[in-house]
């Protein structure tokens, strides 16, 4: 039996004006039909840092993440404001394709297309209007280097992406996302389908990428959150309970629900 | 230790009671036998029927060449069909069949693709609620009804618009278009629905538009299914007899253009089969037409299998 925790007792940090933010949400609610899945989500994400969203299954962390680049369009109703470069992108009339070019996403299950490695990245670039051959080649190399995959695949760019290992496929998906030069990268449990060796590779890649991109990552794995993130938000049953620098969150959680989750009492 | 082992051996001695219990057949075993017997029987009957049909059509179909000594080449390339006078050139019918089949497939495919994309990607709810039943209804309408509509509407329309009798390849194409459209559409819908959701998500998350996603990801990965759908449609068009017979004019002459009366393998078969005597050349010649139809449907089947296999290879790691 899961203990009842008060949703009133939360500890969510805010940032002062000096911190430059990649994006933030204000009173965001998500509904699946009549089912209220996300309550009053107020989170701000500092630039060039990795923010981890943790919580048990069904806590709403993936729902929250998918709302950030409007991937929930047509699936759920999202209300409230999502601020990005001073624009509320949760408004009608906002070009969702443009949003997704700037806020990229990598999914739980590696999902390269059944095309060659090169074609997978070219697809992303063509969708964004890059057509010149020289530029295409250059950006394929750049993005594969960025995802730490270049050395492993540079001689076999025309091989099917499906012939890669799971970890390589996931890094290809990351490469595909950063090929569009986004400034925010959303990752939805990118390592949950990977073995530990591939996981280390992806984590190292992310730590390197935060120099250029702001990263928001949903993870099931608290150790992973503590290894790579600077900020950490804890979700519980559709509520954001605690948001703090990762070190503080794990050494000194403020409220009972976080303490219990980190101690492993549930989840 | 020694003692323990010998004790265990004692326990292994066969007990008569358990021996019978574990060996005798129960009701469950009998049910197994009966069930297996019934299904083997059914399979046997079906294999027998199919094999004897193949043998029957083949032996009758080659009689033209073995008994009546018509050369195969003359049969396939001759343009004069007058079995009474010993002239059996089947080329006009072969051409007629291929013409209406390809024309119908070419006209129907874009419409079927458009409808299928609408039903799966643009408006899945309305697609499932309204279009699905409509398409299923179209599949179920008997071909004589299509032929009748063709005869009553399309033939007079063609006569009015382009002149001539109104019977011809183009009228047959129109009728077949309506008949193969639901086949191609419903199979295309199935193959579009089978495209993994995560392909679509991956594409949208990269900032691709819905149109880019449909044209470059969804259609691309459903290609083998769509080709299969088209071939099934063509097989249906190739084998359709009644509706075609009612609108094509049934003149066993080389089709000069799309609006002059022509005939197909099937229409010639249904027109001629009642007027011939078993064992004579005119009768054997019709069996040869049937043999061509049989070989073509085997060919369509083989093509579908080949495409399915290649599609599978593409998705394997």
UniProtKB/TrEMBL annotation, chain A:
Alphabetical keyword list: ATP-binding, Cell membrane, Membrane, Nucleotide-binding, Phosphate transport, Translocase, Transport
Presence of the UniProt keyword GTP-binding in the record: no
GTP-binding listed as a keyword: no
Annotated CDD domains: ABC_PstB_phosphate_transporter
Cross-referenced Pfam families: ABC_tran
GO MF term list: ATP binding
Residue ranges of domain ABC transporter in the record: 23-262
Alphabetized Gene3D superfamilies for the sequence: P-loop containing nucleotide triphosphate hydrolases
InterPro entries: AAA+_ATPase, ABC_transporter-like_ATP-bd, ABC_transporter-like_CS, P-loop_NTPase, PstB-like
Protein name: Phosphate ABC transporter ATP-binding protein PstB
Organism: Levilactobacillus fuyuanensis
Lineage of origin: Bacteria, Bacillati, Bacillota, Bacilli, Lactobacillales
Automatic annotation (TrEMBL), chain B:
Lineage top rank: taxon: Bacteria
Record has Lipid biosynthesis as a keyword: no
Protein name: Phosphate transport system permease protein
Ranges that cross the membrane: 37-57, 90-113, 134-155, 161-184, 217-238, 285-308
Domain ABC transmembrane type-1: 94-304
Role this protein plays: Part of the binding-protein-dependent transport system for phosphate; probably responsible for the translocation of the substrate across the membrane.
UniProt entry tagged with the keyword ATP-binding: no
Organism encoding this protein: Levilactobacillus fuyuanensis
Annotated family: Belongs to the binding-protein-dependent transport system permease family. CysTW subfamily.
NCBIfam families given in the database record: phosphate_pstC (TIGR02138)
Topology of this chain in the membrane: Multi-pass membrane protein
Protein's gene: pstC
Pfam families xrefs: BPD_transp_1
Keyword terms of this UniProt record: Cell membrane, Membrane, Phosphate transport, Transmembrane, Transmembrane helix, Transport
InterPro entries reported in the protein's UniProt record: MetI-like (IPR000515), MetI-like_sf (IPR035906), Phosphate_PstC (IPR011864), Phosphate_Transport_Permease (IPR051124)
């Amino acid at each position: 039996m899961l203990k009842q925790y008060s949703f009133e007792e939360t500890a969510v940090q805010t940032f002062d004006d000096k911190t430059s933010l990649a994006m933030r949400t204000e009173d965001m609610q998500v509904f699946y039909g009549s089912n209220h899945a996300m309550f009053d989500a107020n989170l701000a994400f500092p630039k060039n840092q990795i923010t981890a969203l943790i919580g048990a299954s069904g806590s709403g962390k993936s729902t929250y993440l998918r709302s950030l680049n409007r991937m929930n369009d047509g699936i759920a109703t999202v209300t409230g404001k999502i601020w990005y470069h001073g624009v509320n992108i949760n408004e009608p009339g906002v070009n969702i394709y443009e949003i997704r070019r700037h806020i990229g996403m990598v999914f739980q299950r590696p999902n390269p297309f059944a095309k060659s490695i090169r074609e997978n990245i070219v697809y992303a670039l063509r969708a964004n209007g890059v057509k010149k051959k020289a530029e295409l080649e250059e950006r394929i190399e750049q993005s594969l280097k960025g995802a730490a995959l270049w050395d492993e695949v540079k001689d076999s760019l025309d091989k099917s992406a499906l012939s890669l290992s799971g970890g390589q496929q996931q890094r290809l998906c990351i490469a595909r996302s950063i090929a569009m030069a986004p400034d925010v990268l959303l990752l939805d449990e990118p390592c949950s389908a990977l073995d530990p060796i591939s996981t280390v590779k992806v984590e190292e890649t992310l730590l390197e990428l935060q120099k250029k991109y702001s990263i928001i990552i949903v993870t099931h794995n608290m150790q992973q959150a503590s290894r790579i993130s600077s900020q950490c938000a804890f979700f519980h049953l559709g509520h954001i309970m605690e948001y703090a620098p990762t070190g503080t969150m794990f050494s000194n959680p403020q409220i009972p629900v976080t303490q219990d989750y980190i101690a492993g009492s549930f989840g | 230790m020694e003692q323990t082992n010998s004790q265990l051996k004692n326990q292994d001695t066969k007990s008569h009671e358990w021996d019978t219990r574990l060996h005798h057949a129960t009701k469950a075993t009998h049910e197994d036998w009966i069930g297996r017997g019934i299904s083997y029987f059914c399979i046997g009957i079906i294999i027998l029927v199919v094999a004897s049909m193949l043998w029957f059509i083949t032996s009758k179909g080659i009689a033209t060449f073995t008994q009546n000594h018509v050369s195969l080449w003359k049969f396939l390339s001759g343009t004069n069909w007058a079995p009474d006078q010993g002239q059996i050139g089947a080329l006009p019918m072969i051409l007629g069949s291929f013409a209406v089949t390809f024309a119908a497939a070419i006209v129907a495919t874009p419409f079927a693709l458009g409808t299928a994309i609408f039903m799966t990607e643009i408006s899945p709810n309305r697609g499932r609620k309204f279009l699905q039943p409509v398409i299923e209804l179209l599949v179920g309408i008997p071909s004589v009804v299509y032929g009748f509509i063709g005869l009553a509407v399309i033939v007079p329309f063609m006569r009015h618009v382009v002149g001539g009798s109104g019977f011809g390849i183009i009228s047959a194409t129109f009728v077949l278009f309506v008949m193969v459209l639901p086949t191609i559409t419903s199979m295309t819908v199935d193959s579009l629905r089978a495209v993994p959701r995560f392909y679509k998500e991956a594409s949208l998350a990269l900032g691709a538009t819905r149109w880019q996603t449909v044209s470059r990801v969804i259609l691309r990965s459903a290609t083998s299914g769509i080709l299969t759908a088209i071939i099934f449609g063509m097989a249906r068009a190739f084998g359709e007899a009644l509706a075609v017979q009612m609108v094509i004019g049934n003149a066993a002459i080389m089709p000069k253009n799309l609006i002059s009366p022509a005939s197909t393998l099937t229409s010639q078969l249904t027109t001629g089969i009642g007027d011939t005597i078993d064992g004579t050349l005119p009768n054997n010649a019709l069996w040869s037409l049937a043999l061509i139809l049989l070989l073509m449907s085997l060919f369509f089947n083989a093509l579908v299998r080949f495409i399915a296999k290649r599609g599978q290879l593409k998705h394997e790691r």
